Amino acid sequence: MRAFNAELSKLFSLPGIWLAFLIGAFAPAVIAALDSTAQKEKIIAGVSTRLSEVGYIGLGLGVQGVIILGVLAVSSEYLTESSESGGGNQITTSLTVVSSRFHFLLAKASAVTVISILLSIVAILTTVSATNLILGEYAPAFEESRLIGAVCYWIFTALLAFGITVLTKNGIIPLAVLMINSSVVTVSYLLAKVTKLAFYLPDKAGVDMFMFTSDSFHTPFTGGLIMFAWVAVLFIVAAIVFHRRDVTS
Q1: d(CA 34, CA 184)
Q2: Distance (Å, rounded) from C-alpha 28 to C-alpha 30?
Q3: pLDDT digits (tens, 9 = 90+) for 109-123
Q4: Residue 192 half-sphere exposure, CB side, CA atoms within 13 Å?
């Protein structure tokens, strides 16, 4: 428990974490507001709409905040400290305090999970508010089961970013790859046009937990199970690599 509290404290002390909170809380709402405006114009023009997807698209594309969270949680450990602090890395100090590397990773992943849950709930509140404000009586009814799926998607995305950063020891690569892949046209989406195997990639399967469209390939439960499996395997591999790694190099 002390390790978990220490990781929470370290995360909240990072300057970049507030950018993650800001993006995570409001990016989905901005996307939802733009989409709601477009759908309202279609309603007025008498054109067919996709109201059932409004809001959920924002929650699907607005995960950049938790991606930053997952990356920062690990990459901050490898930043070089000031000369007054000895010029080493935070990771050395962290592992001195928490002798078990597995417990250290578990505590850090737990802190990322808790913050991701809180951030996703805030994102849902801002997204639902923006959608209802713009669409008014035309606003779709947000289903509890789909919102729970969105929360799970955010948690799993943060943990994927976390695991990849553990493997790379560098935040630039996972941040760039995951941020690009969470944009409007994802790599998974493009691959899905070529092979059905792409539907088993974590992000593509994960969105089926709350995005019910004609393109959905999995049931919400199956999609969540696939994404969870990716997270579990990645965490196990990351834990093994981290256990064997010389953290000073």
Answers
A1: 13
A2: 5
A3: 999 999 999 999 999
A4: 15
